[in-house]
Design a protein that fits this description.
The protein is α/β, with parallel strands linked by helices. Helices cover 38% and strands 22% of the residues.
């Protein structure tokens, strides 16, 4: 019988003790067995680090995980770090001094002595993955138990696919359903450039890390998170992958996104950082206009549409959170 490929689920952590245990549990409840859960604490000021340790140890004792590797004090070395640009080439970790991957579910804890920020920590998470497929998961979001098994099946069936996506269900701060976010209107195999172009003139069909399973070879070929962006780092990353391959879209809500006004999403959707978000969208469209063949007028139209959608998104967020 063919060995199932390893899937890396990365959780970048910074002051997430309120929701982190539930997020970890959603990974450990997966029906798919070959999973490495990687948590990288970005020098949190709350008790996220001891919470991870306690949750991981309890998971091993309960048989939910095969092993827990506490590497918070271990130095991680990179191959030729002086020439690495994370946005264009994946940093290569020297794994020779780190434990070997074990079968079944395993938990890996790393810690940054200095805070790297969102882009820096997400890139570190990606670089530490050893799986054939990768999922980035924010520390307050949740996964359906069947998501990894479902998405992995399509990755195996279609080698040209760089991203497998599923729909998202919104939850409020108390875990109550607050609507759905559907991916691009088509189902199954879709050309990535088609989805990116449509996203630039309607709404973001690519962002939200939890909704995407990434082919690791595509990440290694095209690079990771671009630190030139602050608020749309995930969107830019998935655009970069999508313009270079095929997507497989599943119209079933297999992931759960928490709506919060104090989150990165809350700040940009009609919040205090809305204008910076619009500026980042403008730079994003300019960066990929060549790959999509966009004209000057189309770039301007995309920015106008993004401003409108940002405003409407802010209203949606306020209305739904006001119910709680």
């Amino acid at each position: 019988m063919k060995q199932k490929p390893l899937i890396s689920v990365c959780i970048p952590v910074y002051n997430n003790s309120a929701t982190l245990q539930e997020t970890m549990d959603s990974v450990l409840r997966q029906t798919y067995s070959e999973v490495e859960l990687i948590l990288v604490d970005d020098n949190s000021k709350d008790d996220s680090l001891p919470l991870i340790r306690r949750t991981a140890e309890e998971a091993v004792a309960a048989g939910k995980a095969a092993a827990f590797f506490d590497l918070a004090d271990r130095t991680v070395s990179y191959v030729r770090p002086e020439i690495c640009d994370p946005a264009n080439s994946a940093p290569e970790v020297d794994f020779s001094n780190l434990p070997a991957v074990v079968g079944g579910r395993s938990i890996w804890l790393y810690h940054n002595e200095k805070n790297l920020g969102m882009a820096g920590n997400w890139n570190r998470c990606l670089s530490l993955c050893r799986g054939e497929y990768i999922k980035l998961l924010c520390a307050d979001d949740l996964l359906d138990p069947a998501i990894l098994e479902t998405e992995e099946g399509y990755m195996e069936e279609y080698p040209t696919v760089v991203l497998v996506q599923s729909d998202t269900e919104f939850l409020d701060t108390e875990g109550k359903p607050q609507g759905f976010y559907r991916r691009y209107r088509k189902s199954g195999l879709v050309e990535g450039k088609e989805v990116v172009r449509h996203s630039f003139f309607t709404r973001d069909y690519l962002g939200a890390p939890l909704a995407n399973l990434i082919r690791a070879s595509a990440y290694k070929k095209y690079g990771g998170i671009d630190p030139a962006f602050s608020y749309i780092v995930d969107y830019e990353f998935f655009v970069k992958l999508a313009v270079n391959g095929m997507l497989y879209i599943i119209h079933e809500p297999l992931n759960y996104f928490r709506l919060r006004t104090d989150s990165n999403t809350g700040e940009v959707l009609g919040g205090s950082e809305g204008e910076r978000y619009i500026d980042e969208h403008r730079r994003l469209v300019e960066k990929y206009r060549g790959a999509l063949g966009l004209t000057d007028s189309e770039v301007k139209r995309s920015v106008r549409i993004r401003r409108l959608m940002n405003f409407l998104g802010g209203i949606y967020l306020k209305l739904h959170l006001a119910r709680t």
